[in-house]
Design goal:
Shape of chain B: globular
Shape of chain A: globular
Keywords (chain A): Cell inner membrane, Cell membrane, Membrane, Sugar transport, Transmembrane, Transmembrane helix, Transport
Protein name (chain A): Xylose transport system permease protein XylH
CATH superfamily of the largest domain in chain B: P-loop containing nucleotide triphosphate hydrolases
Organism (chain A): Tropicimonas isoalkanivorans
Function (chain A): Part of the binding-protein-dependent transport system for D-xylose. Probably responsible for the translocation of the substrate across the membrane.
Structural class of chain A: mainly alpha
Number of strands of chain A: 0
Low-confidence stretches of chain A: 1-21
Strand order of the largest sheet of chain B: 6-9-10-3-11-12
InterPro entries (chain A): ABC_transp_permease
Helix content of chain A: over 70%
Structural class of chain B: alpha/beta
Strand content of chain B: 25-35%
Largest interface: A-B, 43 and 49 residues
Helix content of chain B: 25-40%
Distance between the termini of chain A: 9 Å
Number of domains of chain B: 3
CATH architecture of the largest domain in chain B: 3-Layer(aba) Sandwich
Low-confidence stretches of chain B: none
Radius of gyration of chain B: 24 Å
Largest sheet of chain B: 6 strands, mixed
CATH topology of the largest domain in chain B: Rossmann fold
Mean pLDDT of chain A: 88
Oligomer: heterodimer
Number of helices of chain B: 17
Order of helices and strands of chain A: HHHHHHHHHHHHHHHHHH
Strand content of chain A: under 5%
Radius of gyration of chain A: 22 Å
């Protein structure tokens, strides 16, 4: 930090050669948040791996971990956009319950085809989000209030729709959304060859994309990220993805829902970091008035983030219902809190304008690994909640403290 | 007279930066002492050291107050001794009343139960002293900035003040309110209250101060009595910038072209109160290559006029006609206005101009993101090129284009806002107080940029409350008063007196 300020003071000469003093340490320091979070996830995983005598990383458990957290991750992606734009959505847990109930009524009671029913559910979710977003964006009703109302309304409608009963089971084809695995087109399934090949292909593609990006950057200026960190990051990507693929190949391969998640994460990462739409959402959250005066249609963007959140909450509702194989009145209770916690642990700011999709996903998995690890170690649900609460607090304290130091 | 305050060899370091280095300040009892210097010279830091915002152990040097060494650990320590500081950003609670604000933290209470009768009684006394005639039950939000400033001073008076420190007290006041405030300071001097005033408005400093201390780059440059001579302003400027500023306004070859923007019969009503007619039948125009000033007091409706033209970003029930190059155009939303080549550079860069937590690069491209994107997808390399180009062109001082704008100085922030609008390739630029709160050197740079833009054939509307600036920069000056155009003057015929007379005549 000190170096930076001196450069500011030394005037225009410093403008042109800012990257000279880049050392690995100073780079890590200024990007402490991102790397810290990843490091925290690795530390937590390794310690639970040790404390659970290796159960955590067993193929079956890793697969379970993904399935258990899929709906939180799916919603965290949407919530990230909502929180970055400076709002909050408390209704997502109730929407999960409501959509699960709707899906059950359509598929179980009316015997509707699962694809058509799922499509209706997704559209309904988007409509719910849009209805709430309408009041928030165009009438400036605080999102906390609108979605608190939504939380009550849709919990009530869930109860009404189910008449207080659980409805199930779902058709087998629908259950596959959550409990299915991709077929092994390349081998006998022992080990799951397609999983191994996909893991290798995806990891290689990511490394290739990173290298290309860096070469492009190098053409215009010295990249910000030190070379050693770049290499380390890519090595980690290669190892982590292939290791996970190897583990899952030893069970039943990649779960369908993991494919859905991976798609969502890549689409939304791209959307937030590389498109004008994403940039405008960050500007809107950072300073709504300035964004508006720069010609950004702030109302429409806010509206869209909520419609999108509603759709993703509906998707999470379908995944959750498929996983439980029934719709229950209690489905999704307090999910909104897990989702919001994941986004904040992932580095988003309460006041908007700050946060990343990958951060939110890591935040969700950090919570998920802790849940899972503590359950294996048979820590009671009581202390699990205490520990989760403290982790959330610690993460945000770290953020605030880190920011103060930087400012 | 002996010194009431002596600050000796004050050194204060922030991580990596020496904000103050061996600064000395000596203030005589009962005088008005002006502290001047460019932004970042260390004035506010020095006053924070004095008032205990930075506790004793966080700086080096000694403070002697009334001859005794002081070690303030917190603000209340200095307040106890009668040293009261009023910050640039007013610290009032908008939804509380005048009386409640005056006694906030210092309530007229017995065992925690507030005696409202006494509170209002005493509030009435102190507000009368500062010449504020408002019921003490009025909420702060219903007062103008000038009156809010008076409430702050009344609050200081309620605490038995001996040394009053005012940080940029008149920066957001209009001329009448500023004058009233300066009179108040003179009255305090008569009563034996010492004042330290930090100000950028050198004419006020020259008018009111007894002694002037100039800081530059964290050093005391000089301290001298203010002899109220004509030369004093030039001397202050010379000491502040460390060199003689032969010309405060860069020269320009005027080449005025065709009619660019014409506004006819423009009417705007208040954005909340639809019966308040703010802008009344305003007509004005600006040609290519021309710099047209809009003078007026605060509250004359200049910002409202500009913002209502710029995509109806202010007001309601807007009527009138906007013509661009002779053709009527639709400027009913900001996107359309930008697409037509109109840009509005706001007077409030922090609130309305910048996304402070974002990088310089991101701020520069915000108004024209499509220019650095292919379809929906941003082209990072193109965006960096744009960032580099404008940082160079506008001489923005920064560590890199990825630096967050919140860490830039006011002048450089202003250049970023300007750069953002230049990158939207406008033909008409409406600049609203483009040099507010920035130092002399940065002002000169901004003036040069404006001149270059005019030379490129852009039409420029220059709104400013500083009349010398308008006289120095513009080709033509409109005078606005009470929502009307009170007159129009070619710069050759204009003078401060004439402009003031137009404003006053319209009022009466």
């Amino acid at each position: 930090m000190g170096e930076e300020m001196q450069q500011v003071a030394s005037g225009p000469a410093a403008t042109m050669e800012p990257e000279n003093k880049n050392t690995i340490a100073s780079y890590l320091k200024s990007n402490l948040r991102e790397y810290g979070l990843l490091l925290a996830l690795i530390v937590v995983m390794v310690s639970f791996q040790i404390m659970t005598d290796g159960i955590l990383m067993k193929p079956l458990n890793i697969t379970n971990l993904v399935l258990q957290n899929s709906y939180i991750v799916i919603m965290a992606v949407g919530m990230l956009l909502v929180i970055v734009s400076g709002n909050i959505d408390l209704s997502v847990g109730s929407v999960v319950g409501f959509i699960g109930a709707l899906a059950a009524v359509l598929m179980v009671n009316y015997g509707m085809n699962f694809i058509l029913a799922s499509a209706i559910c997704l559209v309904t979710g988007a409509a719910i989000g849009a209805a709430q977003g309408y009041w928030i964006a165009y009438h400036k009703i605080p999102s906390f209030i609108v979605t608190l109302a939504g939380m009550l309304v849709f919990r009530g409608l869930t109860l009404a729709l189910l008449a207080g009963q659980s409805i199930g089971p779902f058709p087998v084809s629908f259950q596959r959304l959550s409990s299915g695995f991709i077929p092994d087109l390349l081998g006998s399934g022992k080990p799951h060859m397609l999983t191994l090949v996909l893991g290798a292909a995806i990891s290689l593609y990511l490394v290739y994309a990173n290298v290309r990006q860096r070469m492009a950057e190098q053409k215009i200026a010295r990249p910000e990220e030190p070379f050693a960190i770049f290499v380390g990051k890519n090595a980690l990507i290669l190892i982590a993805i292939n290791y996970l693929a190897f583990l899952m190949a030893g069970y039943r391969g990649l779960p369908n829902v993991l494919i859905v998640m991976a798609l969502l994460i890549s689409i939304y990462s791209f959307l937030t970091s590389r498109t004008t739409l994403g940039r405008r959402i960050y500007a809107l959250g950072g300073n709504e008035k300035a964004a508006k005066l720069s010609g950004v249609n702030t109302e429409k963007l806010t509206f869209l983030t909520f419609a999108n959140m509603g759709m993703l909450a509906a998707l999470a509702g379908l995944v959750f219902a498929a996983r439980l194989n029934s719709a229950s009145p209690k489905a999704g209770v307090a999910f909104e809190l897990d989702v919001i916690a994941a986004v904040f642990i992932g580095g988003a700011s309460m006041s908007g304008g700050v946060g990343t999709v990958v951060g939110a996903v890591i935040g969700a998995f950090l919570m998920g690994v802790m849940n899972n690890g503590m359950s294996i170690m048979s820590v009671g649900i009581d202390y699990q909640q205490v520990i989760k609460g403290l982790v959330l607090l610690a993460a945000v304290i770290f953020d605030v403290y880190n920011k103060k130091k930087a400012g | 007279m002996n010194a009431i305050l002596e600050m000796r060899n004050i050194t204060k370091t922030f991580p990596g930066v020496k904000a103050l280095s061996d600064v000395n300040l000596s203030v005589k009892k009962g005088e008005i002492h002006a502290l001047v210097g460019e932004n970042g010279a260390g004035k506010s830091t020095l006053m924070k050291v004095l008032s205990g915002v930075y506790p004793h152990h966080q700086f080096e040097g000694d403070i002697y107050y009334k001859g005794e060494p002081q070690k303030f650990a917190k603000i209340s320590d200095s307040e106890e001794k009668g040293i009261i500081i009023i910050h640039q950003e007013l610290a009032l609670v908008p939804m509380l009343s005048i009386a409640e604000n005056i006694f906030l933290g210092n309530e007229t209470a017995k065992k925690g139960v507030i005696d409202w009768h006494e509170a209002h009684q005493r509030a009435k006394e102190v507000t009368a002293k500062v010449g504020l005639r408002e019921p003490t039950t009025t909420k702060i939000t219903n007062l103008g900035t000038g009156k809010q400033q008076l409430v702050e001073i009344a609050k200081a008076l309620s605490k038995r003040v001996e040394l009053l420190i005012l940080d940029e007290p008149t920066s957001s006041l209009n001329e009448t309110d500023s004058e009233a405030l300066l009179d108040l300071l003179r009255e305090f001097r008569a009563q034996g209250i010492t004042s330290i005033i930090i100000s950028h408005k050198l004419n006020e400093v020259a008018e009111v101060a007894d002694t002037i201390t100039v800081l530059r780059d964290g050093l005391t440059v000089s301290s001298f009595p203010c002899d109220k001579s004509v030369e004093i302003e030039n001397r202050i400027i010379k000491e502040m910038v460390g060199r003689e500023l032969t010309n405060r306004y860069p020269p320009r070859d005027v080449a005025i072209g065709d009619m660019m923007l014409e506004v006819r019969n423009w009417n705007v009503y208040h954005h909340l109160h639809s019966d308040r007619h703010l802008i009344r039948n305003v007509n004005f125009n600006v040609r290519a290559g021309e710099i047209v000033g809009i003078a007026g007091l605060m509250g004359a409706g200049r910002t409202e006029l500009a913002m209502s033209i710029f995509g109806r970003s202010y007001g309601q029930k807007i009527s009138g006609e906007v013509l661009l190059k002779g053709q009527p155009v639709d400027v009913s939303d900001i996107k359309k206005a930008v697409a037509l080549g109109i840009a509005y550079v706001t007077e409030d860069r922090k609130e309305l101009g910048l996304v402070l937590d974002n990088s310089i690069k991101h701020n520069l491209t915000l108004a024209n993101l499509d220019g650095v994107a292919k379809g929906l997808v941003l082209d990072d390399i193109e965006e960096r090129n744009v960032g580099r180009e404008y940082i160079e062109k506008l001489n923005i001082r920064c560590s890199s284009m990825l630096q967050e704008v919140v860490n830039l100085s006011g002048g450089n922030q202003q250049k970023v806002v300007l750069g953002k609008w230049l990158y939207s390739h406008p033909e008409v630029l409406i600049l609203d107080e483009p040099t507010r709160g920035i130092d002399v050197n940065a002002k000169f740079e901004i003036y040069s940029i404006i001149n270059d833009l005019a030379a490129e054939g852009k039409a420029i509307v220059f709104i400013s409350s500083e009349m010398p600036e308008l006289l120095g920069m513009c080709d033509r000056i409109y005078v606005m008063s009470e929502g009307r155009m009170a007159g129009e003057l070619p710069v050759a015929e204009a003078s401060q007196e004439k402009i003031m007379r137009m404003i006053v005549k319209n009022d009466g």
